[in-house]
Amino acid sequence: MSYAPRSSGRKKKTSRSAWIIVAIVAVIVVAGIIVGIVVSSNQVGPTPTPTVSPTASPTKTSTATPTVTPTPSPTSSPTPSPSGSTGPTPSPTTNPTQAWANATYGVFSTVAWSHTGNAVVALPQLVGEQVKGGILTFTNNAADDSSFVVQVFDQDDKPMGDPLIDLRGDYAGTVGYGLAAPEIDSDAVPTTVLVTSSGNWAVEIAPVSAAPIGVGTYSGDKVILMPAPKNNTLVVNYGLVGGRFGMNYYYQDQLTQILVPLSGAQVDDQSFALNGVPGLIAVISGGQWTVSAIN
Q1: Which of 32, 37, 69, 260 is the most buried (most CB within 10 A)?
Q2: Are 222 and 181 found together in one domain?
């Protein structure tokens, strides 16, 4: 018996499976290519940094700080404190007469006060050094022709000499304090001024170097700086009838010479020998007077 070989379908199935695998691989490759293209097209490159133009800094404008004028507080027990204001410190000067005054009596800022009634006013003081003297320019509007008295006290509340002003009624004039040297064994320093008044008054406290300089015609109480006279002679005319007049001369280190004792006598054209050095005269007068130097 013979058998004829029977054909088998395995080869056909194997061939079909191979094509399927090839197709799948092809699809994967194509998909990979497509994904690569999409990814490449969607890549974002680095964003360039924008250029920022520099902003100009504003220019600082300096604003001047206003000068605050200090208000001193006077010793005012039991009287109320008057209002006050200070002025600028006198500028250094090369004038020999003013330089002598600064070196002898001290330099400080001018102080102005106004008040009604009695008050105790503190005199200017310097840290580390003493102010030996100054000038006081007063105006007083008396009430009912009442008394007007000005007295200087030292650091121990002791009066320094007689009152600078002691009269009744209105007043306008300039007097000096601490012009003469204290007693040899004294360390007294002018510290306060007691003003006794029932009216309105005002005072300006200034260094001696702020006084007017030289000869001329004046009226009332005055403090005058005197340059060194060429011929050491001073002529004073104070032809007052029934008025008061007195004149003191201060020079060198607070030395004093009484030229005219305070009185009500009338004297015309009286001459006085000075010391040939810078100094000052303090005059108490109830009227007009003239001082001159012989040429």
Answers
A1: 260
A2: no
